[in-house]
Amino acid sequence: MNFDRERLLGLTETYGTPLYVYDAEVMNRQYNRMVKAFSSVKKLKLNYACKANTNLNILKYFKSLGAGLDTVSIQEVMIGIKAGFEPDEIIYTPNGVSFEEIEMAANLGVKINIDNISVLEHFGHEYPDYPVCVRINPHIMAGGNSNISVGHIDSKFGISIHQMPLVKRLVENTGLKINGIHMHTGSDILDIDVFLQGAEILFEVAKDYHFLEYLDFGSGFKVPYKPDGDETDIEYLGEKLGARFNEFEAKYGKELTLMFEPGKYLVSESGYFLASVNVVKQTTSTVFAGIDSGFNHLIRPMFYGAHHEIHNLSNPEGRFRYYTVVGYICETDTFGANRKINEIKEGDVLCFQNAGAYCYSMASNYNSRFKPAEVLLLDGKDYLIRKREDLEDILKNVVEISI
Fold first, then answer.
1. Per the record's keyword annotation, is Lyase included, yes or no (predicted)?
2. Per the annotation, does 331 bind a ligand?
């Protein structure tokens, strides 16, 4: 277990359970690992993909490290500005939103990344002098669950590379200024060579646009979910893509920024989800450990089939037994089936690893349950960065009528 068990247990005594805990030191490690991997590139910009975790304090922390911000909604843009990012440090990459939302982003002055030809044409007529990035779909699949590998030809994301002649004609007709090219490949990338094939497609597209300022290679880098789990080889990618980018830049004849949008890669391993065991229930074939949470707080196992390592913080030396860890939601609500965990008793605290990304951000109030608190570990101290909800939070937007 690569975490401080006693400290996590102490946090549950202070803040209660269920509880999300994030370690800034791990975020720093991941950020600087990427920076080091691409040290051969003159201008590198990592934009934190905040959909992974939008807590304002986490955005502020990445700002302090020198990151930009990748956003997918106007609300994330506004949170980013509140966190202290300048508009030109924010890239806005929506999908299927109204044109009014895109206009709001333009009025705020952020970088805009467009992945739809009709929207690009509309934008070109309304804002011919506002430079935009074009998001291409290179039609590659480099790994991941079918719900998150979204670079394939039938994906809703990106403009097909086969439609680039139409994009060029549109740019000529409207006078639209293209200042960036973006590549979308989906998530949990393992095959670096396939990713590099996608990069070659991006380079091929980019050479036809003469006023580019940056090339954005997206993200989707995989982190290990198990002690011996696979992960994206960032060092190998940095070596290969960094050299190829420098070669392209030299031929292009202009200094460009190499951009990435890591989200899960930066925050996933920093997060721990802590929950208390309410019941241990033996059936004819299974021992259930039922906790004081459910997929309302951590939906990834039920939604994606995602794996989170589960440890018993209260009894780390206990003999191993097999448990199915379940939640209190009134339907199938399984965090892990047939898991080998140190013996569990009612009242024990369980720790779920890799809980920094797409966990709290996808939480809900299903079954009218309160969302948990969030805590940030920073410079040796713990800070409450979101209070636990109460009934007032659940009811605050309800308009009660006389019946």
1. yes
2. yes
Residue 178 near residue 132, CB atoms below 8 Å: yes
Q: Mind listing the pLDDT tens digit for each residue in 81-118?
A: 999 999 999 999 999 999 999 999 999 999 999 999 99
Q: What is the pLDDT confidence band of residue 190, given thresholds at 50, 70 and 90?
A: confident
CA 291 to chain centre: 26
* 225 is an annotated ligand-binding site residue: no
Q: Is residue 327 annotated as involved in ligand binding?
A: no
272 and 254 in a single domain? The answer is no
pLDDT at 154: 62
Domain at 155, CATH number: 3.20.20.10
What mean pLDDT, rounded, does the chain reach? Answer: 94
From 73, 117, 80, select the one nearest 95 (Cα to Cα). 73
220 annotated as a binding-site residue: yes
**Bond preceding residue 316 cis, omega within 30 of 0:** no
Q: How far apart are CA 59 and CA 62, in angstroms?
A: 5
**Residue 330 annotated to the active site:** yes
Q: What is the pTM of this model?
A: 0.94
| Whether residues 179 and 240 fall in one domain | yes
Look up residue 214 and give its two tokens: 């940056």
Contact assessment for residue 38 and residue 258, using Cβ atoms and an 8 Å cutoff: yes
Report the pLDDT value the prediction gives residue 249, as an integer from 0 to 100. 97
Residue 342 resides in a domain: yes
Q: Judge whether 43 lies within some domain.
A: no
Question: What is the pLDDT confidence band of residue 150, given thresholds at 50, 70 and 90?
Answer: very low
User: Do 284 and 237 fall into the same domain?
Assistant: no
Judgement on whether residues 216 and 304 belong to the same structural domain of the protein: no
Catalytic residue among 133, 330, 351, 359: 330
Work out how many domains the chain is built from and give that number: 2
